[in-house]
Write a sequence for this structure.
Protein backbone atom coordinates (compact mmCIF):
# COMPACT_ATOMS: atom_id res chain seq x y z
CA UNK A 1 0.00 0.00 0.00
CA UNK A 2 1.38 3.46 -0.86
CA UNK A 3 1.60 6.24 1.69
CA UNK A 4 -1.29 7.99 -0.10
CA UNK A 5 -3.62 4.98 0.17
CA UNK A 6 -2.67 4.53 3.82
CA UNK A 7 -3.69 8.11 4.56
CA UNK A 8 -6.96 7.56 2.64
CA UNK A 9 -7.58 4.37 4.63
CA UNK A 10 -7.17 6.24 7.89
CA UNK A 11 -9.47 9.02 6.57
CA UNK A 12 -12.27 6.49 5.99
CA UNK A 13 -11.78 4.71 9.29
CA UNK A 14 -14.56 4.82 11.86
CA UNK A 15 -13.53 5.08 15.48
CA UNK A 16 -15.57 3.95 18.46
CA UNK A 17 -15.03 5.79 21.73
CA UNK A 18 -16.35 4.15 24.90
CA UNK A 19 -16.90 6.82 27.55
CA UNK A 20 -17.82 10.52 27.19
CA UNK A 21 -15.99 11.94 30.22
CA UNK A 22 -13.56 14.82 29.64
CA UNK A 23 -11.09 12.45 27.91
CA UNK A 24 -13.61 10.62 25.70
CA UNK A 25 -15.21 13.89 24.57
CA UNK A 26 -11.82 15.44 23.85
CA UNK A 27 -10.58 12.46 21.83
CA UNK A 28 -13.86 12.35 19.84
CA UNK A 29 -13.57 16.06 19.07
CA UNK A 30 -9.89 15.78 18.12
CA UNK A 31 -10.60 12.88 15.74
CA UNK A 32 -13.56 14.66 14.13
CA UNK A 33 -11.17 17.61 13.69
CA UNK A 34 -9.02 15.19 11.64
CA UNK A 35 -12.06 14.29 9.48
CA UNK A 36 -12.54 10.93 11.17
CA UNK A 37 -16.00 9.50 11.73
CA UNK A 38 -16.56 8.86 15.44
CA UNK A 39 -19.16 6.90 17.39
CA UNK A 40 -19.20 8.03 21.03
CA UNK A 41 -21.01 5.95 23.66
CA UNK A 42 -21.66 6.58 27.36
CA UNK A 43 -24.25 5.08 29.74
CA UNK A 44 -24.82 8.56 31.24
CA UNK A 45 -26.90 11.23 29.51
CA UNK A 46 -25.53 14.68 28.73
CA UNK A 47 -27.08 16.25 31.85
CA UNK A 48 -25.40 13.70 34.15
CA UNK A 49 -22.11 13.98 32.25
CA UNK A 50 -21.93 17.72 32.92
CA UNK A 51 -23.07 17.50 36.54
CA UNK A 52 -19.83 16.65 38.40
CA UNK A 53 -18.77 19.23 41.00
CA UNK A 54 -15.04 19.46 40.26
CA UNK A 55 -12.59 21.99 38.92
CA UNK A 56 -9.52 21.06 36.91
CA UNK A 57 -6.12 22.71 36.89
CA UNK A 58 -5.37 23.21 33.19
CA UNK A 59 -1.73 23.36 32.11
CA UNK A 60 -0.09 24.75 28.97
CA UNK A 61 0.00 21.32 27.28
CA UNK A 62 -3.82 21.23 27.58
CA UNK A 63 -4.10 24.86 26.49
CA UNK A 64 -2.31 24.02 23.24
CA UNK A 65 -4.67 21.08 22.52
CA UNK A 66 -7.76 23.20 23.31
CA UNK A 67 -6.49 25.97 21.03
CA UNK A 68 -5.87 23.54 18.16
CA UNK A 69 -9.43 22.21 18.51
CA UNK A 70 -10.92 25.71 18.70
CA UNK A 71 -12.45 25.34 22.17
CA UNK A 72 -10.03 27.63 24.00
CA UNK A 73 -11.61 30.93 22.93
CA UNK A 74 -15.09 29.55 23.57
CA UNK A 75 -14.12 28.65 27.15
CA UNK A 76 -11.95 31.73 27.74
CA UNK A 77 -14.58 33.40 29.98
CA UNK A 78 -14.74 30.27 32.18
CA UNK A 79 -10.97 29.77 32.49
CA UNK A 80 -9.65 31.41 35.65
CA UNK A 81 -5.97 32.18 35.16
CA UNK A 82 -3.50 32.02 38.03
CA UNK A 83 -0.30 33.99 37.65
CA UNK A 84 1.29 32.81 40.87
CA UNK A 85 1.67 29.38 42.39
CA UNK A 86 2.39 29.48 46.11
CA UNK A 87 4.03 26.26 47.27
CA UNK A 88 4.53 25.79 51.01
CA UNK A 89 5.81 23.00 53.20
CA UNK A 90 4.24 23.78 56.56
CA UNK A 91 6.30 21.23 58.53
CA UNK A 92 9.60 22.39 57.00
CA UNK A 93 8.61 26.08 57.22
CA UNK A 94 9.56 26.87 53.62
CA UNK A 95 7.69 28.71 50.86
CA UNK A 96 8.41 29.04 47.12
CA UNK A 97 6.49 31.38 44.84
CA UNK A 98 6.35 30.48 41.13
CA UNK A 99 5.51 33.47 38.90
CA UNK A 100 4.80 33.84 35.16
CA UNK A 101 8.46 34.77 34.53
CA UNK A 102 9.42 31.21 35.58
CA UNK A 103 7.54 29.83 32.53
CA UNK A 104 9.21 28.88 29.25
CA UNK A 105 9.38 31.96 27.02
CA UNK A 106 6.72 30.75 24.56
CA UNK A 107 4.22 30.19 27.38
CA UNK A 108 4.71 33.62 28.96
CA UNK A 109 2.44 35.57 26.60
CA UNK A 110 -0.64 33.59 27.66
CA UNK A 111 -1.13 35.39 30.98
CA UNK A 112 -1.17 32.44 33.30
CA UNK A 113 0.98 29.74 34.88
CA UNK A 114 -2.19 27.69 34.52
CA UNK A 115 -5.98 27.97 34.60
CA UNK A 116 -8.79 26.54 36.66
CA UNK A 117 -11.77 25.30 34.71
CA UNK A 118 -14.99 24.02 36.18
CA UNK A 119 -16.27 20.64 34.95
CA UNK A 120 -19.71 21.93 33.91
CA UNK A 121 -18.75 24.61 31.33
CA UNK A 122 -16.04 22.31 29.99
CA UNK A 123 -18.43 19.39 29.42
CA UNK A 124 -21.23 21.65 28.16
CA UNK A 125 -18.92 23.15 25.51
CA UNK A 126 -17.45 19.78 24.46
CA UNK A 127 -20.83 18.03 24.23
CA UNK A 128 -22.30 20.95 22.28
CA UNK A 129 -19.44 20.84 19.76
CA UNK A 130 -19.84 17.07 19.40
CA UNK A 131 -23.60 17.40 18.87
CA UNK A 132 -22.97 19.94 16.11
CA UNK A 133 -20.40 17.79 14.30
CA UNK A 134 -21.67 15.86 11.27
CA UNK A 135 -18.85 13.35 11.82
CA UNK A 136 -19.83 12.36 15.36
CA UNK A 137 -22.64 9.98 16.30
CA UNK A 138 -23.52 10.43 19.98
CA UNK A 139 -25.09 7.54 21.87
CA UNK A 140 -25.61 8.87 25.38
CA UNK A 141 -27.79 7.72 28.26
CA UNK A 142 -27.21 4.05 27.43
CA UNK A 143 -28.73 4.34 23.92
CA UNK A 144 -27.42 1.32 22.00
CA UNK A 145 -24.46 2.05 19.70
CA UNK A 146 -23.65 0.08 16.53
CA UNK A 147 -21.09 -2.71 16.90
CA UNK A 148 -17.64 -1.57 15.69
CA UNK A 149 -16.67 -3.03 12.31
CA UNK A 150 -13.62 -5.34 12.36
CA UNK A 151 -11.28 -2.61 11.05
CA UNK A 152 -12.42 0.17 13.45
CA UNK A 153 -10.16 1.66 16.05
CA UNK A 154 -11.78 1.18 19.49
CA UNK A 155 -10.90 3.69 22.21
CA UNK A 156 -11.63 2.88 25.84
CA UNK A 157 -12.10 6.18 27.71
CA UNK A 158 -14.42 4.68 30.30
CA UNK A 159 -12.65 5.79 33.46
CA UNK A 160 -10.58 4.16 36.20
CA UNK A 161 -12.68 1.01 36.59
CA UNK A 162 -12.91 0.66 32.77
CA UNK A 163 -15.22 -2.26 31.90
CA UNK A 164 -13.68 -2.22 28.40
CA UNK A 165 -10.16 -2.70 29.81
CA UNK A 166 -11.47 -5.62 31.87
CA UNK A 167 -13.18 -7.19 28.85
CA UNK A 168 -9.89 -6.98 26.91
CA UNK A 169 -8.17 -8.83 29.76
CA UNK A 170 -5.67 -6.04 30.48
CA UNK A 171 -4.48 -6.04 34.08
CA UNK A 172 -3.06 -3.10 36.05
CA UNK A 173 -0.29 -2.24 38.44
CA UNK A 174 -1.86 -0.29 41.24
CA UNK A 175 -1.32 1.11 44.66
CA UNK A 176 -4.14 2.40 46.85
CA UNK A 177 -3.02 5.36 48.96
CA UNK A 178 -3.84 5.44 52.65
CA UNK A 179 -4.73 9.04 51.93
CA UNK A 180 -7.99 9.95 50.28
CA UNK A 181 -8.96 13.42 49.21
CA UNK A 182 -11.85 15.69 49.84
CA UNK A 183 -13.03 18.37 47.44
CA UNK A 184 -15.11 21.40 48.41
CA UNK A 185 -15.90 24.81 46.97
CA UNK A 186 -15.53 27.64 49.48
CA UNK A 187 -15.36 31.43 49.81
CA UNK A 188 -11.93 32.43 51.16
CA UNK A 189 -10.47 35.68 52.43
CA UNK A 190 -6.74 36.40 52.30
CA UNK A 191 -5.80 34.64 49.01
CA UNK A 192 -5.32 36.66 45.84
CA UNK A 193 -7.85 35.82 43.11
CA UNK A 194 -4.98 35.13 40.65
CA UNK A 195 -3.09 32.74 42.92
CA UNK A 196 -3.17 28.95 43.36
CA UNK A 197 -1.64 27.33 46.45
CA UNK A 198 -0.25 23.85 47.12
CA UNK A 199 0.30 23.39 50.84
CA UNK A 200 2.21 20.32 51.95
CA UNK A 201 1.02 19.17 55.37
CA UNK A 202 1.99 16.04 57.30
CA UNK A 203 -1.49 14.50 56.77
CA UNK A 204 -1.28 15.20 52.99
CA UNK A 205 -1.22 18.04 50.44
CA UNK A 206 -3.93 20.69 50.28
CA UNK A 207 -4.54 22.55 47.01
CA UNK A 208 -6.40 25.85 46.91
CA UNK A 209 -7.53 26.65 43.37
CA UNK A 210 -9.08 30.00 42.32
CA UNK A 211 -12.54 29.83 40.70
CA UNK A 212 -12.98 33.58 40.18
CA UNK A 213 -13.72 36.42 42.63
CA UNK A 214 -13.32 35.01 46.14
CA UNK A 215 -14.46 31.46 45.30
CA UNK A 216 -11.94 28.63 45.59
CA UNK A 217 -11.89 24.86 45.26
CA UNK A 218 -9.97 23.02 47.97
CA UNK A 219 -8.55 19.55 47.31
CA UNK A 220 -7.71 18.36 50.81
CA UNK A 221 -5.76 15.09 51.16
CA UNK A 222 -5.78 13.20 54.45
CA UNK A 223 -6.32 9.63 55.69
CA UNK A 224 -9.48 8.36 53.96
CA UNK A 225 -11.55 7.95 57.12
CA UNK A 226 -10.78 11.53 58.13
CA UNK A 227 -11.87 12.76 54.66
CA UNK A 228 -15.16 10.89 55.02
CA UNK A 229 -15.74 12.22 58.53
CA UNK A 230 -15.02 15.78 57.39
CA UNK A 231 -17.33 15.47 54.36
CA UNK A 232 -20.21 14.63 56.74
CA UNK A 233 -19.64 17.63 59.07
CA UNK A 234 -22.20 20.46 59.28
CA UNK A 235 -20.94 23.46 57.20
CA UNK A 236 -19.89 25.58 60.20
CA UNK A 237 -17.80 22.76 61.71
CA UNK A 238 -16.25 21.96 58.32
CA UNK A 239 -15.25 25.63 57.91
CA UNK A 240 -13.81 25.67 61.45
CA UNK A 241 -11.64 22.64 60.69
CA UNK A 242 -10.49 24.18 57.41
CA UNK A 243 -9.70 27.48 59.17
CA UNK A 244 -7.60 25.51 61.65
CA UNK A 245 -5.23 24.17 58.97
CA UNK A 246 -5.00 27.09 56.53
CA UNK A 247 -1.97 29.38 56.96
CA UNK A 248 -2.48 32.49 59.06
CA UNK A 249 -4.24 35.25 57.13
CA UNK A 250 -6.39 32.89 55.00
CA UNK A 251 -9.93 32.51 56.33
CA UNK A 252 -12.84 30.46 54.97
CA UNK A 253 -16.17 32.33 55.06
CA UNK A 254 -18.71 30.11 53.32
CA UNK A 255 -19.15 26.57 52.04
CA UNK A 256 -20.56 26.56 48.49
CA UNK A 257 -21.18 22.85 47.83
CA UNK A 258 -21.35 19.52 49.62
CA UNK A 259 -17.77 18.31 50.32
CA UNK A 260 -17.04 14.91 48.76
CA UNK A 261 -14.41 12.35 49.76
CA UNK A 262 -12.61 10.19 47.18
CA UNK A 263 -10.17 7.30 47.55
CA UNK A 264 -6.82 7.86 45.81
CA UNK A 265 -4.72 5.44 43.85
CA UNK A 266 -1.79 5.22 41.49
CA UNK A 267 -2.66 2.92 38.64
CA UNK A 268 -1.08 2.01 35.33
CA UNK A 269 -2.49 -0.52 32.88
CA UNK A 270 0.00 -3.28 31.96
CA UNK A 271 -0.48 -2.37 28.30
CA UNK A 272 -2.12 0.60 26.62
CA UNK A 273 -3.19 -1.19 23.45
CA UNK A 274 -4.50 -4.60 22.51
CA UNK A 275 -5.19 -5.38 18.86
CA UNK A 276 -7.16 -2.44 17.48
CA UNK A 277 -8.11 -1.18 20.95
CA UNK A 278 -6.41 1.54 23.04
CA UNK A 279 -6.80 2.80 26.58
CA UNK A 280 -6.87 6.58 27.02
CA UNK A 281 -7.32 8.77 30.09
CA UNK A 282 -8.08 7.18 33.42
CA UNK A 283 -8.97 3.90 31.74
CA UNK A 284 -5.19 3.52 31.34
CA UNK A 285 -3.67 5.39 34.28
CA UNK A 286 -4.36 7.31 37.43
CA UNK A 287 -2.21 9.38 39.72
CA UNK A 288 -2.55 11.31 42.98
CA UNK A 289 -4.19 14.74 42.43
CA UNK A 290 -1.15 16.58 43.89
CA UNK A 291 0.01 19.12 41.32
CA UNK A 292 -3.29 18.84 39.34
CA UNK A 293 -1.72 16.61 36.67
CA UNK A 294 -4.56 14.07 36.13
CA UNK A 295 -6.65 15.49 33.31
CA UNK A 296 -3.65 17.07 31.60
CA UNK A 297 -1.98 13.68 31.40
CA UNK A 298 -5.23 12.24 29.96
CA UNK A 299 -5.31 14.95 27.30
CA UNK A 300 -1.66 14.30 26.37
CA UNK A 301 -2.89 10.75 25.58
CA UNK A 302 -5.37 12.37 23.18
CA UNK A 303 -2.60 14.41 21.57
CA UNK A 304 -0.37 11.38 21.00
CA UNK A 305 -3.25 9.18 19.75
CA UNK A 306 -4.37 11.79 17.22
CA UNK A 307 -0.78 12.15 15.97
CA UNK A 308 -0.66 8.37 15.57
CA UNK A 309 -3.92 8.47 13.56
CA UNK A 310 -2.44 11.26 11.40
CA UNK A 311 0.57 9.06 10.64
CA UNK A 312 -1.90 6.53 9.19
CA UNK A 313 -1.92 2.75 8.93
CA UNK A 314 -4.39 0.12 10.06
CA UNK A 315 -6.23 0.50 13.37
CA UNK A 316 -3.93 -2.16 14.85
CA UNK A 317 -0.84 -0.25 13.79
CA UNK A 318 -2.17 3.07 15.09
CA UNK A 319 -3.03 1.42 18.43
CA UNK A 320 0.39 -0.23 18.81
CA UNK A 321 2.24 3.00 17.96
CA UNK A 322 0.20 4.93 20.55
CA UNK A 323 0.79 2.21 23.15
CA UNK A 324 4.58 2.45 22.69
CA UNK A 325 4.73 6.25 22.77
CA UNK A 326 2.82 6.96 25.98
CA UNK A 327 4.86 4.98 28.51
CA UNK A 328 7.59 7.43 29.45
CA UNK A 329 5.34 10.42 30.20
CA UNK A 330 2.95 8.25 32.25
CA UNK A 331 5.73 6.64 34.26
CA UNK A 332 7.54 9.93 34.92
CA UNK A 333 4.43 11.84 36.05
CA UNK A 334 3.11 8.87 38.07
CA UNK A 335 6.47 8.48 39.82
CA UNK A 336 6.91 12.22 40.45
CA UNK A 337 3.45 12.63 42.03
CA UNK A 338 3.96 9.47 44.09
CA UNK A 339 7.35 10.66 45.39
CA UNK A 340 5.96 14.11 46.19
CA UNK A 341 3.17 12.61 48.30
CA UNK A 342 5.48 10.16 50.08
CA UNK A 343 8.30 12.61 50.80
CA UNK A 344 6.15 15.58 51.82
CA UNK A 345 3.34 13.98 53.86
CA UNK A 346 5.23 13.40 57.12
CA UNK A 347 7.37 14.93 59.87
CA UNK A 348 10.27 12.44 59.57
CA UNK A 349 13.35 14.42 60.71
CA UNK A 350 15.71 13.55 57.85
CA UNK A 351 13.06 14.14 55.21
CA UNK A 352 12.12 17.50 56.74
CA UNK A 353 15.80 18.56 56.51
CA UNK A 354 15.97 17.34 52.88
CA UNK A 355 12.76 19.25 52.02
CA UNK A 356 14.09 22.42 53.67
CA UNK A 357 17.23 22.28 51.54
CA UNK A 358 15.37 21.36 48.32
CA UNK A 359 12.81 24.16 48.73
CA UNK A 360 15.50 26.69 49.65
CA UNK A 361 17.36 25.79 46.43
CA UNK A 362 14.14 26.10 44.45
CA UNK A 363 13.46 29.48 46.01
CA UNK A 364 16.92 30.79 45.15
CA UNK A 365 17.39 29.30 41.68
CA UNK A 366 15.26 30.60 38.83
CA UNK A 367 16.71 27.84 36.60
CA UNK A 368 15.38 25.15 38.95
CA UNK A 369 11.98 26.82 39.13
CA UNK A 370 11.87 27.00 35.33
CA UNK A 371 12.72 23.29 34.94
CA UNK A 372 10.14 22.17 37.52
CA UNK A 373 7.44 24.44 36.10
CA UNK A 374 8.21 23.19 32.60
CA UNK A 375 7.76 19.57 33.77
CA UNK A 376 4.48 20.45 35.51
CA UNK A 377 2.97 22.49 32.75
CA UNK A 378 4.28 21.03 29.48
CA UNK A 379 5.10 17.52 30.69
CA UNK A 380 8.50 16.09 31.70
CA UNK A 381 9.29 15.01 28.12
CA UNK A 382 9.33 18.64 27.00
CA UNK A 383 12.28 19.63 29.21
CA UNK A 384 15.01 20.80 26.86
CA UNK A 385 12.71 20.58 23.79
CA UNK A 386 11.50 23.47 21.63
CA UNK A 387 7.83 24.15 22.28
CA UNK A 388 5.36 24.26 19.38
CA UNK A 389 3.78 27.68 18.63
C1 LIG B 1 -10.74 14.54 43.82
C2 LIG B 1 -10.10 14.66 42.49
C3 LIG B 1 -9.57 15.88 42.11
C4 LIG B 1 -8.99 16.02 40.85
N1 LIG B 1 -8.44 17.21 40.49
C5 LIG B 1 -7.86 17.34 39.28
C6 LIG B 1 -7.24 18.57 38.85
O1 LIG B 1 -7.19 19.57 39.57
N2 LIG B 1 -6.68 18.63 37.63
C7 LIG B 1 -6.70 17.56 36.79
O2 LIG B 1 -6.15 17.67 35.68
N3 LIG B 1 -7.27 16.39 37.14
C8 LIG B 1 -7.84 16.24 38.38
N4 LIG B 1 -8.41 15.06 38.73
C9 LIG B 1 -8.39 13.95 37.80
C10 LIG B 1 -9.53 14.07 36.80
O3 LIG B 1 -10.79 14.14 37.46
C11 LIG B 1 -9.51 12.86 35.91
O4 LIG B 1 -8.22 12.83 35.33
C12 LIG B 1 -10.55 12.93 34.80
O5 LIG B 1 -11.85 12.92 35.31
C13 LIG B 1 -10.39 11.70 33.90
O6 LIG B 1 -11.32 11.77 32.86
P1 LIG B 1 -11.73 10.47 32.04
O7 LIG B 1 -12.65 10.99 30.98
O8 LIG B 1 -10.52 9.71 31.65
O9 LIG B 1 -12.53 9.53 33.07
P2 LIG B 1 -13.93 9.81 33.77
O10 LIG B 1 -14.09 11.26 34.06
O11 LIG B 1 -14.00 8.84 34.89
O12 LIG B 1 -15.02 9.43 32.65
C14 LIG B 1 -15.28 8.08 32.28
C15 LIG B 1 -16.60 8.02 31.51
O13 LIG B 1 -16.79 6.66 31.09
C16 LIG B 1 -18.17 6.34 31.25
N5 LIG B 1 -18.33 4.88 31.30
C17 LIG B 1 -18.31 4.05 32.38
N6 LIG B 1 -18.53 2.78 32.00
C18 LIG B 1 -18.68 2.80 30.66
C19 LIG B 1 -18.92 1.78 29.67
N7 LIG B 1 -19.07 0.51 30.01
N8 LIG B 1 -19.00 2.16 28.38
C20 LIG B 1 -18.87 3.44 28.01
N9 LIG B 1 -18.65 4.44 28.90
C21 LIG B 1 -18.56 4.12 30.21
C22 LIG B 1 -18.58 7.06 32.50
O14 LIG B 1 -20.00 7.25 32.51
C23 LIG B 1 -17.81 8.39 32.36
O15 LIG B 1 -18.58 9.36 31.68
C24 LIG B 1 -8.96 14.90 39.98
C25 LIG B 1 -9.51 13.67 40.39
C26 LIG B 1 -10.07 13.55 41.63
C27 LIG B 1 -10.68 12.22 42.06
Amino acid sequence: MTRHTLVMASFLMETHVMGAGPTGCMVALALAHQNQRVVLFDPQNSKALAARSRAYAITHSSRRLMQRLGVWDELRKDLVAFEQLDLRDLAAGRQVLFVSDDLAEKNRGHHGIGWILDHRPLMTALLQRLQESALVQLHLGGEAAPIPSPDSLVIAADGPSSPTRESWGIGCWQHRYRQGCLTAKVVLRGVQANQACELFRPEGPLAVLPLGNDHFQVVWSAPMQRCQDRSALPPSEFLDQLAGILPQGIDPDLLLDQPKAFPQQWMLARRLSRGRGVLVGEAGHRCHPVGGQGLNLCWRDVDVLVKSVQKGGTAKRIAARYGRQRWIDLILVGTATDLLVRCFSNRIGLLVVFRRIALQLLKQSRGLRQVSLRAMTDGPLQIGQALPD
